[in-house]
Structures are given as structure tokens and as C-alpha cells.
Design goal:
The chain is mainly alpha-helical. The chain contains 14 helices and no strands. The chain has helices at about 1-5, 15-45, 50-85, 85-105, 115-120, 125-135, 140-160, 165, 175-190, 200-225, 235-260, 265-270, 275-285, 290-310. Helix 2 (about 15-45) runs antiparallel to helix 5 (about 115-120), helix 3 (about 50-85) runs antiparallel to helix 4 and helix 5 packs parallel to helix 9 (about 175-190). The longest helix has about 35 residues, at about 50-85. The chain is globular. The chain starts with a helix and ends in a 7-residue tail after the last helix.
Length: about 325
């Protein structure tokens, strides 16, 4: 980015390259969030068909095969750097690959997709607060106000606009697992900020997918011995291809790149859109109607994200 700024024409508006990077970063974060929304629907839909650990294992196996042709050459070139930072890559693989999505599939055994999306939407707050504490990342009034507006939208969605619903909320074991998954995802996103120089996005994807699958293999072997294999039909194959290619290779590449461009805190704000995307997807795929509280919630969340994502002049 510094090279682009140096070679930009003198007539270019100040901050032009930065603004372009910010737009691309937010677009990539939005793409990843939208694609991941389908993952919550699949977690619920496959809960009685494919055991969670087996679903996670085959997801990452497919993702690894999808990324391998594109990333093998960069991996060979960057292998010395990758080897020096094996600890960082291993931790990223454990958090982002082995644990995060496996926990989502475990949570889907006893929690509906809407609950999963709502709990996941709390991760931006964790990311923003941790960024502030760890790296003194400036927040600004717009980001705080936008976060508050997005949280208000999520509250409207959870309670359906009724205080009685809020008082009567009940949480299942799946909600607890999803809370752990949300914290793991926040940790993974924060870790990406420390990605070592010399490791490209494709190399990081291939390395984390490979190591994460290896870490998951012992649990997969035990699960296979206990539950046996699952039946494969058109629906199961389609779901595995979606989570393996779209939710893994495409979405993780977009998310990692977004964090590299705009930082974990700013990219994390977009994750507030998760419940809105899940609601829209449920309407399009399952025919679940969108009610008035959901419409109000989406408006609040989208407005909050737009406000929080604004970049201060000169920043």
C-alpha cells in the first residue's frame, strides 16, 4: 500500500489509496459474513444427519483440496518464513479451524440457527474491546455509537420488541457451546493482526487448513469408531461442498484479507450483520417470514454498521 501511495498522481485526493483499501476491506468482511451465515443454517440442518466432528473434518478436507492448487507455489516460496513462525500458524489453525467451526456444529445439535447467529454477533464487541485494551486502538464516537446501535438492533431481534420475551429467555447447552465458539473466533481474529510479514494470505490459508485438519484427525477417528460413517446423498454432498469451498476457502480468504486491510476491530463491526443475513437466508431458503421486529432490527444493525465503519478524516 505504501508503494501505491508513492506512485499515485499528484492530483489524487488525499487518502485516496487508504480509502480504496478501506472500501475493499469492508466489502471483503461483508462477503465473509454473508457466506458464513449459511454455515449456521447448515449446522442446524445437518445436526441429525452428520456428527459435528465428522462434518468439521470433511469441511476442512474439502477446503484444503480447494486451496491446494492455488497455494502450493506460494507455500514453497514462503516455506522458510512459515517454518520460523510455526507457533503462530499452529495457534491460528487450532482456533480458526479445529475449534471454532467444530464448536458451531456441536452447538447446532441443540440450538436453532437464529440463536447461533445472535450469539456470534457478540464477537465484534469482544474484538473491539480487546483491540482497545491490547493495542490502544482508537475508537471514536462514531464507532461506539454504531456498535451501540447494532447491539440495540440485535436486542430487538432477540426480544421481538417485547420485554416479556427478554425476561423469559432460556438458554440451552448449545447456546453455551456457541458462546465458547464466539470467543474463539474473536481470539482468532485478533491473532490475525499479528500475522508475520512474508506469509501471504493463500499460504496462511493452506497452512492453517492443513494443520487444523491434522489436529482434528484424532477426534474424527474416535467419532467414527463410536458413531460410524454418515449417509451421503445429494443434500449432504451439497452442504459439504458449501461449507468446504464457500464457507471455508472463500470466506476465510476474504476475512483474513479484510483484517489485513482495515484491522480486526473495524472488520469485526461488520459481523453484527450476521443475524440479519441469517434471517434473510432463512426466508429465501426455508420460507421463514420476516416479521416487523426483524425488519426493525435489520435497519438498526445496518445503520449501526454503516456508522461504525466510517473512517475519520485524516485517520
Amino acid at each position: 500500500m505504501s508503494q501505491t501511495a508513492t506512485t499515485a498522481p499528484a492530483s489524487a485526493p488525499p487518502g485516496g489509496p487508504r480509502r480504496s483499501a478501506a472500501v475493499r476491506g469492508m466489502a471483503l468482511a461483508t462477503t465473509a459474513t454473508a457466506v458464513w451465515s449459511g454455515n449456521f443454517v447448515i449446522a442446524e440442518g445437518m445436526s441429525h444427519t452428520v456428527p459435528p466432528v465428522q462434518l468439521a473434518f470433511w469441511r476442512w478436507t474439502i477446503a484444503l483440496l480447494a486451496v491446494l492448487p492455488l497455494a502450493l507455489r506460494p507455500l514453497r516460496r514462503e516455506w522458510p518464513v512459515l517454518r520460523r513462525h510455526l507457533g503462530f500458524v499452529s495457534l491460528a489453525a487450532l482456533l480458526g479451524v479445529t475449534l471454532f467451526n467444530t464448536l458451531i456444529y456441536v452447538a447446532g445439535q441443540s440450538s436453532p440457527a437464529t440463536n447461533l447467529g445472535l450469539i456470534a454477533a457478540a464477537s465484534p464487541l469482544v474484538i473491539v474491546l480487546a483491540s482497545r485494551v491490547l493495542w490502544r486502538e482508537p475508537m471514536g464516537a462514531a464507532r461506539w455509537a454504531g456498535s451501540a446501535l447494532a447491539l440495540a438492533g440485535i436486542a430487538v431481534l432477540v426480544t421481538k420488541g417485547s420485554a416479556d420475551v427478554l425476561l423469559g429467555l432460556r438458554f440451552s447447552a448449545g447456546d453455551g457451546w456457541m458462546t465458547v465458539a464466539m470467543l474463539v473466533f474473536a481470539g482468532y481474529s485478533l491473532l490475525l493482526r499479528r500475522k508475520p510479514e512474508g506469509i501471504s494470505s493463500l499460504t496462511l490459508l493452506l497452512a492453517t487448513f492443513g494443520l487444523g485438519t491434522v489436529f482434528l484427525a484424532p477426534a474424527y477417528a474416535v467419532d467414527l469408531a463410536v458413531h460410524g460413517t454418515f449417509p451421503v446423498d445429494g443434500g449432504t454432498a451439497g452442504a459439504l461442498l458449501y461449507v468446504g469451498v464457500a464457507s471455508s476457502a472463500v470466506a476465510y480468504f476474504a476475512w483474513n484479507k479484510a483484517i489485513a486491510l482495515v484491522g480486526a476491530a473495524r472488520a469485526g463491526i461488520v459481523y453484527y450483520l450476521q443475524p440479519a443475513f441469517v434471517a434473510v437466508l432463512a426466508y429465501l431458503v426455508l420460507g421463514t417470514p420476516v416479521n416487523a421486529p426483524q425488519a426493525v432490527s435489520m435497519l438498526l444493525v445496518i445503520s449501526g454498521v454503516a456508522l461504525a465503519a466510517r473512517r475519520r478524516t485524516g485517520s
